[in-house]
Amino acid sequence: MLQQTSYYVHCAVIGFLVLFLAACRTSDEADRPEVGFVTNGIASFWTIADRGANAAAEAFDVDVSVMMPPDGPSGQSRMVQSLLARGVDGIAISPSDPANQAGLLNEIAQNTYLITHDSDAPESQRLVYVGMDNYEAGRMCGQLLKEAMPEGGEVVLFIGLLGQLNADLRRQGVIDELMDRSHDNSRRDPVDRVVANERYTVLDTRVDQFDFARAKGQVEDALARYPELDAMVGLFVYNPPQILEAVREAGKLNQITIVGFDEDDVTLQAIRDGEIVGTVVQNPYRYGYESVRVLASLARGDQSVIPENQFIDIPARRITADNVDVFEAELRDLIGN
Amino acid sequence: MKKIFGILGVFVAVFVLTAILEPNFLTAYNLQNTLRWTGLFGIISIGAAFVIITGGIDLSTGSVIALVGVLVPMLLVDVGMSLVLVLLILFGVLLVMGIFHGVLVTKLNLQPFVVTLCGLLVYRGLARWLAGDQTQGFGSAFDGLRQLAIGRIPIVGDFGLPIPFVILIVLALLSAGFLHNTVWGRYLLALGYNEEAARFSGINTSRMITVAYVIGVMTAGFGGLLFSLDVNSIQPAVHGNFYELYAIAAAVLGGCSLRGGEGSIFGVVIGAAVLRLLYNAINILGIPTQLEFAIIGTVILVGVSTDEIVRRLAARHELKTTRDT
Amino acid sequence: MRVPGEMPLLEVQGITKRFPGTLALDSVDLRVGYGEVVAVIGENGAGKSTLMNILAGVLLPDEGTIHLDGQIQQFASVKQAHAAGIALIHQELSLLPNLSVAANLYLGREPARAGWINKETLRTQALRYLERVGLKCDPQTLVATLPIGQRQLVEVARALASNARLLIMDEPTSSLAEEEAEVLFDVIRELQERGVSILYVSHRLREVMSIADRVVVLRDGQVTGRLAQESVTRDEMVRCMIGRNVSRIYTRKRNEPGPVVMRVERLVTRNTKKRSLSFCLRKGEIVGLAGLVGSGRTELLRILFGVDMPKSGLVTVAGRPVELKSPRHAIAAGIALVPEDRAMQGLILEMSTQPNLSLGALYRHYLGWKLLDRAWENDVTKKMVSQLNIQGVQASKPTRHLSGGNQQKVVLGKWLTLHPHVLLLDEPTRGIDVGAKQETYKAIDELAARGMAILLVSSESDEIIALSDRVLVMQDHTIVGDLDHTELTERALMQLATGSTHESPIEEESIGEVA
Questions:
Q1: Domains and CATH numbers, chain C
Q2: Which of A193, B45, B274, C106 is 20 to 30 A distant from B110 in Cα terms?
Q3: Domains in chain B and their CATH numbers?
C-alpha cells in the first residue's frame, strides 16, 4: 500500500518536473545565434547586467541566456555544461575561481567562443575580457579613503570571498594605494598579517561568504575588538550597507570613516547623507551589453571586435556626495525604475 | 541536566579564555552583540529542538527564514499592507507549512528528512521566485518595527539587553513550561521516546507530531522575521543558508538526542549561546575566518564527547551502587 | 538406517542455564548419534530454544559440557559452532531474498581468486548441494522467487555446503504446506542415510512420530521423558509435556459474574477464514483466551483496543456501540490493554514511574491551559505503588531500571487510574519471576472482584486454568470452544486448541503452546 503510494507520488513528481521544464523552455527561433551570459552569483548588480545583455541581444539580433548560479563554482560548471549541451554559439562568464576552473574554461573554449567579463582569467584561452581593472578600482577605493582621512588611521576590510581574482585584486588595490606602493597587480599581502606604514594600518580582512547576517556580525566584532578603529572598507556590494547598519547601531558614525564598493541603494543614500564617504561603481550594464555584442559578432564570424590587448575596458567610477544624484538618476534610467 | 554539563563547561571555558586573551571581549558593546545573535539563533533552535524531540528533523528552517525575509518586506513595503495584516498572513502561511510537514510525516509516513529537505528546496525556490532574486529590505520606514531586532532595554550604563535575547528568554520559558508542565509537552516527550507505546497509551501521536512541526516552522518564521529586520537586506538566494544546521547543532549541543525524547530547552539556549560565543571569539581574537568551521566543529565535538563520557561514568557508577545494595 | 554407534556425534551433559528470575535449563543431558534424528519437544518456555541456542553457539551455558566427536567443545560464537559442523536452521529463514540461490549457499565463503568471485565454480558446486536436497532449480534463481518450501531446502543445502554434520531445525514445517513438508522429510531421511545427524524441534506430534528415532521431552528446563521410537505415542508425549499440579500456582475464589459489559458480535478480521467471532464479557469475570501461537488471539486483542481495524462486526461496551478507530477511542470507551511487548508498547522505558502511570489518564486529568495536575499525579502514583506493591520506584529513576515484574505492574497501574470497564491482558506474566507472577495474579483477581471484566491471553495453560472463570479457545482465527472453569483441564484445552474434536487436518496432530 505504502509502496504503491510512493510510486504514485514519484510519478506525480516526475510528471510535474517534466511539465515544469517544458514550460520553462523558451521556443527556439530558427537560425538566431544563441549566446550564454554566466554570472558568479545572484545580486541586483547582475540584474543590471542582465538588462544590458538583453538590450544587446535585441540590438544585435541574438538570443541570450543569462544564468546566475546561486552556489559559486559548482553552479557555474553545471550551468555552463547545460549551455554547451544546447550548443550555444558563445559564452561570456565571470569565473568564480579562475585558478581552479581551467578545466571548465578550456571546455568552453574548445566548444565555442569564450570571453570573460567582470572577473578575468588571463591564463585561459578566453578571447577577450570585458570589465574593469579591479586592481585599479581598488586603488580608487583607497584613494577615496585617503582623501577622507589624510591624517591616517586603522582600517579593516570586509569582503565576501577571497581567492576570486577580482576580489583579490580589489583588496590588493586598496592596500597598495594606502601603502603608497607602486602599481603592481601581482602583489599579494597575506590575509592574517597586519599591513602598515607610518600613516595607515590595515588590521584585518574579514570574509563572510555572502552571509549577510554574518557580514554584519563581523563588523560588530571588529568594532568590539578595535575600539580605536578609524575606517572600514566594504568591498562587495552588500558590505557597505551592513557596515553602515552595525556602525550606526554602535553609535560610531562620527568615528568610523566608511568607504564602499558598488551601488546598493542604501550605500547611495548614505553617501548623500554623508555617512559613507564614497563608493566605487562598476558598470554592469556595459558588462552585459559589451559581452553580448562581442559574442554576437563572433558568432557571425566577425573577429574584428577583439582589440589588440584582449581587454575591453569598462572603467570604474568614483561616486561621492558630489555626483551621487546624477549617478542615481542615470541608474534609474538604466533599469527603467 | 546531566547531558549539558560538557557544553556548559565549554561555554565557561571559551568565555573565560576569550576574556583573558582579549579584554575588549567584555565590553558592553560586544556582549550586547553576542546576546543579540544568541537571541536570533536561539529562537530558531528552540523550534528545531521540538521537532528533534519527536525523533524528527527539520531541514527547512533556513529556507523558511528566507521566504519570510522576502515575504514580509515585499508585503509591507511593496504592496503596502498594514503590519497586522502582514503578520496574520505570515501566521497563516507558516501554520499551513507546519501542518503540511506534519501530515506528510504522520499520514503518508514519509521520512522527516525527506519531507523537510523538499521544504528546504521548495521554500528557497519560492523565495527567489517571489523576489526575482532581488535583494529585499524595509528601507528606513520601519525603524520602529526594526527595534524588535536591533533595540535594547537599557540596564546599566551603556549596557542594555538586546530585545531578541529578551524574546528568546521569554520564548524559552514558555517552551520549557509547555514541554515540562503541560499535557501536550508530556505527550511530545513520551512519543519521542517511544511512539508506539505512546499510541498504545491513547495519545494522538499524529496530531502531536504535527504540533511539533508547526512549532518548528513557526519559530523559524518568527526568527526569520527578526533576522530580516536585523540585516534589513535580504538576498533570497543566500539569506538563511545553512541556518537549519546551526539550529540543529544548537539543539543537539543542548542535549537533544536525534533519536528523540530527550531534550531540555535550557540546554538549547546554552547550545545556541556556545555557537554564537565561538563565532564572536574567532572574530574578536582575530583568528582567520578560514579556520572558523574547523574550530567550531572541533569545539562541538569536544563538548558532545565530554557529555557522553560523563554519562558513561555516571552509568558505571550507578551500576556499581545498585550492585552494592 | 545406520545403527547409532558406540560414541555419539554429540554428547551434552549437565547443561544448566539461568536467566534473571528463571532457571531455563536444569542439568540437561542429550545424545545424538551419527545419522540419528532426535526430536526435542515441549511446551512454550520449556527450554527448547535455549538448548538449541547453546548448541549453535548463540548462548553460553552456565554449567555443563558439550562433546562433539568425543572432543570437548565450548562455542563462544555461532561461527565456532559452525566451524565444528553444527548448523542452526531458524524458524524465520535467514536467506537474503535479493541474492541468487548460489550466492546464498556460499555467502561469506565465495570461491574467489584475488577478490573476484568465480561464478562457474560457484554454480557447479551449488548444483551439487541442491541435488542432494532434491531441489531442481537453477542456482542463479533469485531466492525471492522461490516458494517458501523450497527456500527451506536451500537453507538445508547451505548448511550441507558448509559441511555441517549436525543440523538443528527449529520448527521447520511451521510455514510449509503438507506436500512441502513431505519433501522436507524425504530430504531428512536421505541426509540421515549419509550420516548427517538432525536435532528436530517441533510442536507437531505426528511429524515427530514419523521421522524421529528418539524423542526428548523438556518441561520447565528439565528432561521429563526420553522415548525410543517404538514407544513414541501421542499420549505418552502429552503425558510428559504436561502434568504440573495446576491448583498449586494460584487459587482463586470464583464470583458470580454480573451483567454483560462487553459484547462482540460477528467480528470479521483480515484473517477470518470460516466463522466470524462473537462473545461477551461480564462484569467481574475473567475470561481466558486460549489457542496456539498464530491462532489469532493477539490479533483479536489488537482489534478490541483499536490498533488494527476489523473488516466488519460490532462491539458494544456497557450497552453502547463503540467505534474502535484507535487506542484513544478504545480507552475513551473504557477498554484498556496490557500489551505483550512491555518494552515496545507498554512503557516509556526512559521515563520514570510517575509519568508512565499517569500517561493514559492525562487526557482527562489536567488543570486549565492543559497544565499537568501534579498533585493528582503524585496521589495516583502513591496509590498505585502501594496498591500494586510496585518496588524500586524513585522519582527520577527511569522504568528501564525496574525489574520485569515491577514494570508490568506499572503498565497495569497505568490503566487502573482510568477504571476501565474491560481490561485486555496479553501474556501478562511473560518474562517475570515467580514472586511477581503471584502478585500479578492477585492483582488480576482483585480487579475482577471489583467488577472489571478481564480478557486474559496466556500461553501458559496452568495460568489460564487457575485464573479463568471461563475460557474461549481459538483456533485458526475463530472461536472453537467456550469452557466453564469446572470443565477446565489442560487436556481439554489442548484437544480444543489442536482441533482434535474438530475437523482440521493441518493442525490435527500439533500440540504444545497450548492455551
A1: 10-246 (3.40.50.300), 255-334+420-515 (3.40.50.300), 345-419 (no CATH)
A2: B45
A3: 2-324 (1.10.3470)
